[in-house]
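User: For my dataset I need records formatted as: sequence, then structure tokens, nothing else. Please produce one.
Assistant:
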Amino acid sequence: MTTSDVLVLTLRLAAIGVGSYFLGSLSSGYLVGRIYRNVDLTRLGSGSTGATNTFRNLGPGAGLLVTFSDIAKGAVAVWLARLLFPGPSEWAPLADAVAGVAVVAGHCWPVLHRGGGRGVATAFGAFLFIATPAWLGAVLAFVLALAITRIVSVGSLASVAGGVAAYVLLTATGVMTLHVATLAFTLVVGGIIVWRHRPNIERLMRGTEPRVLS
């Protein structure tokens, strides 16, 4: 591979990162809040523009719409990355990881307005295509934790542990091929999600975190 080839590939990675970040910054929660009731979700409830705060303030219909929209953002970011790195390529896992991290970062810290979400749904969308078998571990952990505790934040944090554990286990047993970039994606995005849940963790420690499905 020549120096010019490396330069072109590096520029493509940069384009993926920037594009995915701006895609993540398109806040479906903010838009749904304005369209549904002309409210600013960043000024309601937890101030998050994610699905949970939407559900609590605008109802289940709006919450589901935001959930699926946020999942779609993560999936579309990875899909676009694969358009620039089609077929088997040693650069493809890196492109997927860059897209996944950038779209989650854009969702959590949008450039277009203040506020942002916790990143869970968008991470699910990216993880689904980056490491599908491990994604099942994240979803299973989320569902089990939510069913037991009826607290969304517990399910979200459990999904991080479930996704990382599933990826490590599946690569260690040979079910999946280990890619450093993919592992980095799971750890970095998991770290972002945990960081964004700091207020929830504080409320969990105080026993004041609200439940759902009660």
